[in-house]
Design brief:
Elements lengths: L8 H50 L22 H4 L16 E2 L9 E5 L2 E3 L1 E3 L12 E2 L2 E2 L16 E5 L40 E6 L4 E5 L40
Parallel strand pairs: 1-2
Antiparallel strand pairs: 2-3, 4-7, 5-6, 7-8, 8-9
């Protein structure tokens, strides 16, 4: 009788085991590639925002948004998103590819998106760039003497303009404490608003657009070294120059690079 060729049960089990082993080896690599792709897409979004802000400031003699939202009691995103809508058509650029699910649909920091009035986003501008009327001494509870107002200043490569963020706006100060845990976001005015930007969205980094129109990835601890406003101390208490120690940082941030 002719013998039929085929796999034995043992051979099939060996093949399945090999496939499972290969999958176990490849899955982490595939996961890293996906995260890297999202980070690159995020930076591409910010390059689009560079064009948006450039068009706005070019048409307003180099001045930034006023920070005012007429007719809206809850300012939030209205002071910047509404005036900028005429300058873009693809609403997807408001969302970092790693943070697309709104909080009201179950999204969570750092991979969730804020949601207001039918609009969602996961980026935010640096509020200290606002250009309110000269007669206004404060804007949304913050003194206006520190505002940059215009993009035509020295050192624009160190002045953040638009970044990954957990909320729709933020006014950081050099004395702001870091988040106690990843996702510790403060929503109240003038209270450690650096926490809104300090989130582990891209493996210890966020992406940011600067007023010189450059886009860079930023280590979380370097946020305290940037020139958020005119009197921001870049050698403040949360920098190496200012004397911060390893143990001063919350546990979840200690592994990140110091600046």
């Amino acid at each position: 009788m002719q013998k039929e060729n085929g796999f034995t049960l043992i051979e099939l089990l060996v093949v399945i085991a090999i496939i499972a082993l290969l999958m176990a080896i490849l899955m982490p690599a595939l996961h890293r590639v996906r995260k890297q792709a999202r980070a690159v897409s995020c930076q591409m979004n910010l390059h689009q925002w560079a064009i948006v802000f450039s068009m706005y400031t070019d048409q307003n003699n180099g001045y930034f948004l006023s920070g005012l939202a007429e007719g809206v009691s809850n300012v939030g995103k209205y002071w910047w998103m509404e005036p900028l809508k005429p300058y873009y058509t693809d609403e997807r650029i408001r969302l970092c590819p790693a943070a697309t699910k709104p909080y009201n649909e179950g999204g969570r920091v750092p991979f969730g998106a804020w949601h207001e009035g039918g609009d969602a986003g996961s980026y935010s501008p640096n509020g200290w760039l606002c250009n309110p009327p000269a007669t206004m001494e404060s804007l949304h509870g913050r003194t206006t003497e520190n505002n940059w107002r215009t993009v035509d200043v020295k050192g624009t490569g160190d002045i953040p303009m638009f970044l990954d963020c957990a909320w729709d706006d933020a006014w950081p100060n050099h004395t702001d404490h870091p988040p106690e845990y990843d996702g510790d976001v403060v929503e109240s005015v003038n209270n450690n608003e650096m926490k809104r930007f300090c989130l582990n969205r891209h493996d210890g980094f966020i992406n940011g657009l600067f007023t010189d129109r450059s886009v860079r990835k930023l280590g979380l601890k370097v946020l305290w070294k940037l020139r958020w406003h005119r009197k921001f101390d870049t050698a403040g208490p949360w920098t190496k120059t200012g004397g911060v120690a390893y143990e001063n940082w919350p546990q979840w941030m200690r592994r990140f690079k110091d600046y």
